[in-house]
Amino acid sequence: MSGNLWMFSDMLDDEDAKMMQHEFVTYYEGADYYGLGLKVFTRLAHEAGAVYKIGKRVLIRRDIFEEYLRILRRKEDTSEMDENMKSEDNDMRQGALTLDAQTGRMDIRFDLENYYGGLQCGERLDILINGEWVPTRIEMGDGWYLSGIKTDNLEGLIVRI
Prior knowledge:
By secondary structure, this protein is of the alpha+beta class. It is built from 4 helices and 9 strands, in the order αβααββαββββββ. A hairpin with a 2-residue loop joins strand 6 (about 125-130) and strand 7 (about 130-140). The radius of gyration is 28 Å and the shape is rod-shaped. InterPro entries: DUF5348, DUF6462, Tn1545/Tn916_Xis.
């Protein structure tokens, strides 16, 4: 950890305090402290560019290694978010907005015979604008409109729900 150590003092133990005093660690110390196997720690240290040979000893610079771990963690988090977004995209159905003349409600036509069944005020959906999906919700005032999106005619707009 870097920065204000006192802010996290309730989370630190003696081993953390001891480790913070060292700028460099050996392979064995690092593998033990970070809870990684020796081979995994060695590989990550080399990938991070944190390996230094000082005399006959090979040492790992902690700050470089920890920054590399943070970068890896961010990549994992964003890839998980991307996977979640993809699964959400797969769950959503895409169609065109249309006005149901009998009920006066907006509906989504998925294909020739499949309809959503009538949209309610405040229902959330995504609309395709310039190749990008924009989240919005459908509302009714003097007529049907999409919140935050200016358009004169809703019929035929590509949406997903």
